Structures are given as structure tokens and as C-alpha cells.
Fold this protein.
Amino acid sequence: MDTDSAPSSTPYRFVVLTMMGCGLGTLVSLSALLFVECVSWLNTWLLISPRARVQVLDRELLAMLTVLVPTMGGLLVGFLLHKLTLEKRALGPADVILAAQLRQPMPDVRSGVVSSVASVVSLGCGASVGQYGPLVYLGALQASMLDRLKLRIPNARSIAIACGVAAAISTAFNAPIAGLVFAHEVILRHYSLQAFAPTTVASASGFIVANVLFDRPPLFLVRFEGVNYAYEFALFALLGIACALLAVVFMKSVIASARLASVSRIHPVLRPAAAGLVVGMVALKLPDVLGIGTELLRFATIEGAFGNLELTSLVIAKLLLTALCLGFGFAGGIFSPSLLVGILFGALCWNLLGAAGVETSGIAVYAISSMVALASAMIGAPLTAILIVFELTRNYELTIAAMVSVVFANLIVFRLAGRSLFDIQLAARGVDLSGGRDRAQMQRVRLSSLDLSEAVTVRPDESVSTAHARMIGERRAEAVVVDSRHRFVGLLRLQDLDNESSCSVKEKLHSDSLVLFEDSSLWDAMNDMKGFIGESIPVLSRRDHQFLGVLSEGAIITSYMQTVHRARREENDAL
């Protein structure tokens, strides 16, 4: 479906892309609402939600279920992911980014469906993971099914993915502008008019379905009269810096947890159950760590709702348990836990400022600013976070305050850890997006996929005069010297030879000449070629240095330019 050139007119593209945005927006929104309702129903039925728990009079039964439900849920999740998916893990935003940035298909549909079901089970049984990451993947999964259609539109796959993601975020937050920006900021990472128009339609369609047809309630309601003191903007900046350091700890905890799981002796199927057991044990003392924590999120903006000790305990517990659950294989996202940890941390900071006698404008602005500062730094979406605040609260002054915290948090996290947790996860898989999409695409192009040319080959024991005659006859300035097993020995250059010489080739060859390997990337080849002077470069197998053929400097540069032009064309395409 992703064709570089398509024989389609502008009206055709306009109609098809509009229908794509509207259809995907509606479908993804309905699916996202069903996902959320299933999680909510499981939370009630399995006594995870606070409302369901307070109605249970048998405290011993409640304590038993608090430990048993996350453990058994983890066992089911481990079975689903390890036995029924090709990747043997949960799929999430990192996989969506990979598909969009490298122009490659999404993982198979069955694995995507199983991963989404596993996410519902994980969230339903109280695992300390988030729902927005699975919703993003669910939107991209439905969009990927359009691959079966021959739309004859350039970049149709990545545009469809952006539409699905935008609709999912728009539905989840009742924030259509934030959904639109998230798709471009996190997934596509560029703003082309060709993608912007259908993504806008998809995001608006998702908002209409969720907010108009089903009248979904907002995530929280906040009243804020404005910033009363100018010096508070310096406090918001300091709060952003503190959130940045907390985000780095959060990221490193998730990575460390995954590393611990990989070296542990626990069978992969049982790892989520082990994490669920820990969650249940902690929940006996801190039941608020269970599940998404939507109620906790809303209470955090109320003055006096939590004491300093309780806030500190919840921040530490939620951070560590989320890292444990994600690292040990539960299916879920990082966005929701980041929002919760951030808002609790902001409330704690406000309490400490009050205890120090500092006059402030209330808890709401500190809690909200910290919430979006931490979450945006974790997922690499500062603009999305700022717009979420504005669309949820409709409060301009609160948005400005949050913007200060978000900017400082993202600046510091980018320098200390990278753009986002998703980029760190992709880097661990060998995909480095820090240098841009064109560089990442070139790192995925292997030299074995390029057309290798034949070369004049000679043996080390042949005479120079014989080699000279063959090179002149085939009009080549270089010959490749190989042994009896066709392994590379060196290069022979015509300028160094004398056709009357009786010495052997071995005495004239250059054994230190530049060579490339078949599994090397196009990006590596471009770097290795700096300062190269010659006719062509030998390409060898890495295992035994067998000579496979040669690549000219022009062939490598042409492939490089094609990759760059393709990326730039996608970023600047219009309807």
C-alpha cells in the first residue's frame, strides 16, 4: 500500500483520505470505548476499583482477592503473550513508531489482537500499567488492516496509522487537538499536509463519537483562578526540573526491571504472575496502587486529601510497581502511570512549599503542571501534554503554568536519557531514531539488498603481467585478489603495475584497502567511505570473508540519496 509514486489524481486522494480519516476515527473510537468499558467492568467485578472494594464487608475475603486477582491475571497474561503471539511480548507504541518511521508493516494481526486482550486482562486485574499505550496500538492495529486495500496513494500506510492513533488519543482524553498533535509529534514526527488533513478528520470523528454520541465525562475537573505571584513561574520551572529527574529514574527503573526479568530464572509465562503477586502484597497496605488509579488522579487536586507520608509512599510504590509490571511482562502502557505519579508528586511538592511558608496559588496548578511535565518527558510529547491541559481544563493561565514545567522537564530528560522511553526501547532493539528517520531507514538497509557488481579476480600467486593484461582487457583499474577458497586477500591497482614485471601479485597487493560486509548498513557504508579514493569497494561475508562482489561509490551514494529523498518527500507531500 505504501507506494512512492501512484497514478491517482488530487480529487481521488482527497476523497479517499477523508473517508479513511472518518471511517478509522469512528471505528477506533468505538473500539477504544469498548476497551475502556471492559476494563471498568473487570475492575468492578474483580474488586479492583475503590467503589467496589468499599462495598465488601468481609475483610479477609477482600485481602485474599487483593493478592490472588493480580497474580492469576498475570498468569493468564503470560500464557496469552508467550503462547499466542509471535513476538512473545506485549505490543505497544514503540512498535507503532517503528512501523511509521521505517515504512514497514505492523506485527501480524493475531499478535495485535492477543496483545490488546492481554492489556484488558492486565488492566482489569489491577496491574500497575496504563491504558493509553494499548489504545494507541489498538488504533494503529485497525489502521494496519487497510494494507489489504490497493489505495494507490503514497504513504497511505503511515497516514492510516496516524489516523488510528489520533482517534484513540482523542477518544481517551476528549481532546481532539491533542490527538492530532500526538499522532504527528510521537508517531509520524513530521507535519505534512497530506497526513495532517485525514488525521484531523480522524481525531475529530473520535471526539464526536466519544463526547457527543456517548457523552464521556472528562478525565478530571479543576477550578483555577490564576497565578497570584510572579515568582511562582520560577517554581514551575524548578518543578519541571524535579519531574525530569524523576522521569529519568522512572525510565531507568523500567529498563532495569526488563533486564532483571531476562536474567531471572522465572519462566516467561510466570513472570507477569510474579509481578502480580508483588502488586497484590503491596496493595494490602496501599490499595491505591491497583489499576489505572483514575479516582486517585481526581482526588490529588483536592487540598488536604493526602498527607506527605501517604503521597511519598504512593509515588515510590506506583513508580516501582509500574516498572516491575512492565519489565516482567504485563501488557500495558506507561502514560497513565506517569500521569498518576506526576500528579501525586506535584501535590507533594505543593505540600512541602506550604510547610516552608511559601505563598502559592493552590494545589491544582502544581499537581497538573507536574502531571504533564512527567508524562510528556516519558513519552516525548511536550506539545501534546500542553494541549491536553488546555482541552481538559479550558483554562489559559493553567496551561501557561504547565507549559513552563513541560519545557524544562523535556529539555533535561532529552539530554540525560533521550527523547522518550519508546526511543530507548527501540534503541535496545537496534533502531536508533536519535539521528532522524532518514538515518534510521539507512541503518535498516543492508548492503546485501543492493545490486553487487562483478570484478576482476586474481590469485596471489599469479604473475603481475597476467593480472595487468586481464585488467586492461576488461578496462578495470582495480582487481580483487582472492585465495583458492575465494576469500578476500587484498586489492591490486593498475597504477602500481608494470606489464613487463615477472613478480607475483602477492608482492603488489594492498591488504589494508577498504572493505564492506554484506550485513553492514547503508549508514555504516557512508561513514566508512569518508576519504575513500578508488574504483569500487569489495563486499565480503562477515563469517568467512568470502568475496561476494563490489559496490561502486556511485551505487552507495545513489541508494543514500533515494532514502533521503523518499523521507523528505513524505514529510512535504500535499494532497
